Amino acid sequence: MRHYEIVFIVHPDQSEQVPAMIERYRANITARGGSVHRLEDWGRRQMAYPIQKIHKAHYVLMNIECDQEALEELEPGFKFNDAVLRHLTIKRTEAVTTASPMMKEEKSRDMLDSAKTDGAKPEAAVEQPAAA
Fold it and tell me: Which residues pair with 56 in a beta bridge?
């Protein structure tokens, strides 16, 4: 079996269908003996350039291991689904299981946001007893 990295972009009006799409693709891969090593839902993001006059879209990244038949079944699913604006499949030499740079950036933002909110609360708590 070969390793692949798949990124697909979904129309923003169809964002609520993304979990069902992901589950359908995952079921298709596992039914044929493949596996999903990494699955990241990046959510709705600004696109680099408009596609069909749309400026934002829902992004999903999957790293999978499957045979050629499973991949040949996935590709038309992307191609003939009107909700999928673009898709890209890349062959990889090995399975990728670590977080992508996009998710690392999101985690660092979350950590910074939580540090700002956590940092503000203890300072306020320290100031109150000192004033009393």
Answer: 46
Tell me: pLDDT of 21 over 70: yes
Nearby residues of 56 by Cβ (< 8 Å), 6 or more positions away? 12, 44, 45, 46, 47
30-43 pLDDT, tens per residue?
999 999 999 999 98
Query: By C-alpha distance, which of 54, 76, 59, 63 is closest to 15?
Result: 59
pLDDT digit string (tens) for 102-122?
Answer: 888 777 766 667 666 665 554
Rounded CA separation 67/105 (Å): 32
Three-state SS string across 56-99, please?
A: EEEEEEEEEEECHHHHHHHHHHHHCCCCEEEEEEEEECCCCCCC
pTM above 0.85, yes or no: no
Residue 97 phi, psi dihedral angles, 5° rounding: -120, -10
**What pLDDT sits at residue 118?**
63
Number of Cβ within a 10 Å radius of residue 29:
23
7 has which bridge partners?
61, 88
